[in-house]
Amino acid sequence: MLEVFLLETIFRDARDPVVLLNTDRTVKSANPAFRAVARKGRDGVDFMDLVSFHARDRVLSQLVRAAAGDEILLEVPHPQEDETDRVVEYRFFPVEDGRVAGMGRMRDGEPGLNEQLGRAKAELQHKARMLDEIQMELTQVPFIDPVTGVWNRLQVIERLAGEWSRSERWGSPLACLMIDVEGLANIREQDEQSISDDLLKAVARRIKTVVRDHDIVGRYSGDCFVVFAVHCDLEGGRYLAKRILDCIRGEPVAVAGRSVKVDVRIGCCTTRSADVEIMEDLFQVAGSRLA
């Protein structure tokens, strides 16, 4: 995987601990410095089992924020064999596929270490973007939105066609959620295109943390996402919309050294809604119900 490759090539010999966590918080990859300080810190182990019991609730809540798109600075106590704690200051941040990377500081009081970690993280993200672009060109995959990493409009419509047919065949409901991100036009007017792109990425990540793996998430237009929830009636669609709203509005997004509050409007309908007769009606009806 991309993250493992980057960790091995960039941080293999780092004296500070570096760890990559899966979406279920198990250790995906780690360097020797991490394994030295986190007792039993082997691949596949739940990261929370490597945290002292008294700090687990605090650490877990912050890891959830990092998985949702925030950058977190967090002290984590790792229990040692002599029953003491070894405290490591980590900078946790999201990477591809909902995973979280953590870079720790072991040398207390070293000047400029946070700045070094920041540069290293920026290098990691830059290399990740470069490799993503190369992979896209090599594999000639035309269905991923290059900014947000979710399906683009053409692929959304193609996947929807299959789900629409199954819904008609089996009579199972299909919910459509249109999600409009507000305020990005003003940001672009201030020549901050990169910030608006980062906000769209954060919204896409947060949406994906809420929906199920088999649901469809795509970028429908400039600042608008669409979600198709299979086997989901109107009540279920409204509940999903509330969860997405809570996730997006719950915490500001950290971009360009500042916290930006993101808000969205969501419209919901289903294949059983009164005004939905053909597949294309889902987009129009859900869009008319944005609130």
State the gist of this model.
The chain has 291 residues and is an alpha+beta fold.
Overview of this protein structure:
The protein is of the alpha+beta class. The chain has two domains: 2-139, PAS domain (Beta-Lactamase, 2-Layer Sandwich); 153-288, Alpha-Beta Plaits, CATH 3.30.70.270. Helices cover 42% and strands 23% of the residues. The chain has helices at residues 2-10, 32-37, 56-67, 113-139, 153-170, 184-189, 193-210, 234-250, 281-288, and strands spanning 18-21, 27-30, 72-79, 85-94, 100-105, 174-181, 216-221, 224-230, 253-255, 258-260, 264-270. The strands form three sheets. Strands 2-1-5-4-3 form a five-stranded antiparallel sheet, with helices on both faces. A four-stranded antiparallel sheet has the order 7-8-6-11, sandwiched between helices. Strand 1 and strand 2 (27-30) form a beta hairpin. Helix 1 (2-10) crosses helix 4 (113-139). Mean pLDDT is 85; it is low at 107-113.
Describe the secondary-structure layout.
Blueprint: H1 2-10, E1 18-21, E2 27-30, H2 32-37, H3 56-67, E3 72-79, E4 85-94, E5 100-105, H4 113-139, H5 153-170, E6 174-181, H6 184-189, H7 193-210, E7 216-221, E8 224-230, H8 234-250, E9 253-255, E10 258-260, E11 264-270, H9 281-288
Number of domains: 2
Major β-sheet annotation: 5 strands, antiparallel
Unreliable runs, pLDDT <50, ≥5 residues? 107-113
The number of E-state strands comes to: 11
End-to-end CA span? 39 Å
Taken from the alpha-carbon principal axes, the silhouette is elongated
Largest beta sheet: strand ordering? 2-1-5-4-3
The mean pLDDT is: 85
Kindly identify the CATH topology of the largest domain: Beta-Lactamase
Helix content: 40-55%
Structural class: alpha+beta
Order of helices and strands: HEEHHEEEHHEHHEEHEEEH
Task: State the helix count.
Answer: 9
Corresponding CATH architecture of the largest domain: 2-Layer Sandwich
Strand proportion, as a percent range, falls in 15-25%
Q: Please report the first level of CATH classification, the CATH class of the largest domain.
A: Alpha Beta
Per CATH, the superfamily of the largest domain is PAS domain
Roughly how many Å is the radius of gyration?
Answer: 21 Å
